[in-house]
């Protein structure tokens, strides 16, 4: 098991966080990876912060010609990816050192094409007292109910799934992407906490809850081509299952 893993990392104004992200990839016990960072015209000193790490030839630093959003940055990286396996790591999150090793072994052992792991959240520097889990298998039907996994935990077999390009959405573009992948394979859970999701006030997932609900509706309409009535029902359904997820899929840390 020594196939190349392409790590997809969109970046925008993450100079304060991206070094820890890069180091967590360099610390992987599985060493055959390429990290494709696509910078979306950052206005901070991300370029300067990343530059010293480009001596590692496994790291590629690409730039959008104009500010285009995370979806277009991921699409660019996915077109450039050369690996058999695709994994995702946002530029303000980190992996544990054995993440790639453990997840690849899990996929190879069971011949899975699409998997996710558990993860833990650090909110504004404070660790939440639980691990986020999910169903053992996420089918297409379950994915309509809710996006049960974090993007930074996902890996899929690119050779099996093919090239994925994401709808140009400001939010939930990763959720929309999973609907393309799940057409080829269900998503299987590796019940190990191998990723840390660093959530902060500036993160892309932060924002007004009503606006986030609106973006779910937009995702169903624009990416999945649902009519207004069906998109409304799916959005309401998503809210219901989202409440259950917060209760059902948590493991307290003692």
Give an overview of the whole structure.
- With about 250 residues, this protein is α/β, with parallel strands linked by helices.
- It has one domain: Spore Coat Polysaccharide Biosynthesis Protein SpsA, Chain A (Alpha-Beta Complex), CATH 3.90.550.
- Strands 1, 2, 3, 4, 5, 6, 7, 8, 9, 10 and 11 form an eleven-stranded mixed beta sheet that branches.
- The longest helix has 21 residues.
- It is globular.
Throw out a few tags for this protein:
254 residues; alpha/beta; Spore Coat Polysaccharide Biosynthesis Protein SpsA, Chain A; 25% strand
Structural class: alpha/beta
The portion of residues forming beta strands comes to 15-25%
Cα distance, first to last residue? 35 Å
User: Rg, please?
Assistant: 17 Å
Q: Tell me the count of domains.
A: 1
Q: In the CATH classification, which architecture applies?
A: Alpha-Beta Complex
Give helix and strand order, one letter per element, not per position.
EHEHEHEEHEEEHEHHEHHE
**What does the largest sheet look like?**
11 strands, mixed
Tally of alpha and pi helices: 9
**Can you tell me the residue ranges where pLDDT is under 50 for at least 5 consecutive residues?**
none
Mean pLDDT: 94
CATH level 3 topology = Spore Coat Polysaccharide Biosynthesis Protein SpsA, Chain A
Superfamily (CATH H level) name: Spore Coat Polysaccharide Biosynthesis Protein SpsA, Chain A
- DSSP helix fraction: 25-40%
CATH class descriptor: Alpha Beta
Gist of the model:
By secondary structure, the chain is of the alpha/beta class.
């Amino acid at each position: 098991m020594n196939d190349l893993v392409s790590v997809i990392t969109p970046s925008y104004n993450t100079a304060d966080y991206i070094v820890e992200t890069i180091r967590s990839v360099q610390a992987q016990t599985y060493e055959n990876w390429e990290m494709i960072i696509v910078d979306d015209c950052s206005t901070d000193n991300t370029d300067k912060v990343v530059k010293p790490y480009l001596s590692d030839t496994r790291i590629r630093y690409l730039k959008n010609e104009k500010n285009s959003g995370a979806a277009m940055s991921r699409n660019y990286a996915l077109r450039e990816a050369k690996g058999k396996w695709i994994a995702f790591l946002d530029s303000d999150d980190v992996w544990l050192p054995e993440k790639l090793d453990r997840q690849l072994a899990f996929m190879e052992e069971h011949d899975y094409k699409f998997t996710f792991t558990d993860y833990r959240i650090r909110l504004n520097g404070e660790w939440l007292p639980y691990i986020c889990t999910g169903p053992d298998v996420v089918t297409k039907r379950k994915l309509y109910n809710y996006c049960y996994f974090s993007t930074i935990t996902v890996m899929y077999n690119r050779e099996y799934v093919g090239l994925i390009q994401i709808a140009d959405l400001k939010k939930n573009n990763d959720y929309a992407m999973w609907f393309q992948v799940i057409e080829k394979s269900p998503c299987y859970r590796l019940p190990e906490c191998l990723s840390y999701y660093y959530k902060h006030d500036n993160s892309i997932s932060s924002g007004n809850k009503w606006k986030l609900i609106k973006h779910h509706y937009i995702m169903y309409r624009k990416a999945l081509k649902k009519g207004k009535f069906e998109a409304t029902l799916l959005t309401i359904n998503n809210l219901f299952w989202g409440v259950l997820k917060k209760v059902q899929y948590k493991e307290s840390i003692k």
